[in-house]
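Chapter summary example: a protein plus fe (ii) ion.
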Amino acid sequence: MKQLTLDLIDTVRGISECVDLVNPVFSHHHKRVTCIALNIAQRMGLSLEEKRELAIASLLHDVGALSIKERVKYLEFESDFGVKNPYNHAEIGYYLFKEFKPFLNPAIYIRYHHTYYADIEKDSLPLGAYILHLADRVAISIREGDILLQSKTIKDRIRAQSNRMFNPEVVDGFLSASSVDGFWFDAVYMPLDALIRENNLSKGINITLDELSSFAWIFHILIDFRSRYTATHSCGVAGVALELARILGFSKDELKLMEIAGYLHDLGKIAIPVEILEKSDRLTEEEFNLMKFHVYYTYRILEDIEGLEQINTWGAFHHERLDGSGYPFGLREEDLPLGSRIVQVADVFTALTEDRPYRKALPIDDALIHIETLVRDKKLDRNVFSVLRSNVDLVMERLSEVRRRGLEKFNNFYSTLGVNDYAFSVE
Ligand SMILES: [Fe+2]
Ligand SMILES: [Fe+2]
Ligand SMILES: [Fe+2]
């Protein structure tokens, strides 16, 4: 089976930036934490591999916080959550990222990024994990205005927590690294590209399509599980697209790529507030415009990952239409290969047969009639549609099975992790 070479830093950078976009309150939080953490790690002489793991963990550490409300909660410097009451987003991050082999160590860093040093067995974690925790607290302490004026207060605050919140060795590393102005300027200017280059963090690793699929699976959970209405959407699209592609004669490797494209097609929704995904009234024009951004983000995030070009073309063009009336690029028939057309039909079919906050799922026949109209209007592909119509029982069998498993996973996810209401809250 086909192997791919991926640069791990590239795979997470775009996603990290996108999450930072969700709300200006976060003001590039992931990026800032990564810059601070790398500067401390460099000062402490961590190995290349440890620095790479730390960068991945820093870039993703709060991605498990599924709603804005939850993310805002973690901007307070100190709270009484210790290991007995683990932060859900840290636990979610661990639970998901460990499923992709190269992220196993970063997943451990993420799990403990809010845990007090005093609450766990002494020095049981890799140094990077302690650095991430401290860097995160430094980042949230930074306010608008003169950074050098703030630096003393921040240093005092961190020093006072040596041995309690933070590993004393890492506190020393931080105090030493932050004794120069450049450390603080980096914390504000956030020269992530330069730090990645200086530290030589880019490195291609070989992964199989199955491994890539587990990587995509993680992100499908992060996208879909933010709202019960979308809980099985991406895996549903993946299932339908896979079935259609199989009937249309795609090869085994192409089918894997198609499944991955389905998992990732709505990746950019990670930057859309859950409040919009859950809204039961009609979206205002402004909200709809924001919603439209999601495919654009998908495209731009995937574009930065060398090796995923085909997945991007298939997945990110699912709101384009053959007559050029789609978005965000207004592509036309000649720009849209069969793979993209399959995902378009799979997306519409899956969405129409799902409940939405503002309507119930459509019966299958009605969904088919609806898609037929779009085909007649030259928006969706006629051939793909006729494959769907003549095999609708088979497709539905697969879709129902995928949905059943997805829902089971969704319920398990929330009960196992002790996460209850926050992903749904619309306050
Ligand atoms: Fe966090
Ligand atoms: Fe954070
Ligand atoms: Fe979409």
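Key point: The domain at 224-416 is CATH 1.10.3210.10 (Hypothetical protein af1432).
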